[in-house]
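Hi V.,

You were right to ask for the full record rather than a summary. Here it is.
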Amino acid sequence: MPSPERTPIEQWYGARKHAAPQTSPASAPPAPGQSAPFRVAIQGEPGSFSHQATTQLIGNAEIVPFSFSAGVFAALSEGAVDAAVIPIENSLAGSVSEHFDLLLAHDVKVEKETLLRIHHNLIALPGVSIREIQRVFSHPVALAQCRRFLTDHPQMEPFAFYDTAGSVKQLVELRDRAAAAIASEAAARYYGAEILKAGIEDNAENFTRFFLVRRTQDAETDPQANKLSLAFSLEHRPGSLAAALAELAAIGTNLTKIESRPVHGRPWEYVFYVDCLIGSPEEGSRAVAALMPHCSMVKELGRYGEARP
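Predicted structure:
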């Protein structure tokens, strides 16, 4: 039987799934006396929230977009880019678990963090009215954060997409007047689209925490760093987690986050990820040393300055 005909959007997305990992066009060699551009990998497209976070963290940089986070970390590990900017936690949706796993799996360090206020907007082609919209595309987290708006507009069918800015890019490429995207104001400007409705998120207290990540040998530690991220796994004996946490408490370390993740291929074993506030580099070193007797593995993910809204 012949295959059913795919819609233009299905054809567009299918082509992307089978294409080579997406990156920016190769840069021209720097002119004599000029340094090479600082290249930063992100998951998603230019104009995305990760792109905005990159600008907050380091200013101008050459954005190297990837469709999948694994590609971001592979490019960083291989030296194809200088750094990566990744979302690690959202104040409403919680942690990005995949990124914790990738931080542990690669020889990289967190150098900085920033918080980005997330504003979601309904975006369409210029001249399209809100009454024409039948389909809305965006990242699943963005769709979930705009449930009230979508409920109030039942004629708009939501579709999950790989990236917020990517959803704007595809509707502009396809010139689809019946489609809209949920994304940032920056994405609308970048791709020449138009905001039909601004600020459609359900909750105004919507922040995402982003990490600037570099290869371990390139990462710089801020001497004023007051935050430490660690990953550790425990010895198999009763009370080992309580004992490890008690050691941190005994030296006065303020534990601000703890999260467990399963160890792949080893059922019912877990890696714990913690964030601590530290008063000095020495306190950070004491925190790492305090965990060692109770843990089968301890990895310092980075020391950096705490970001505040």
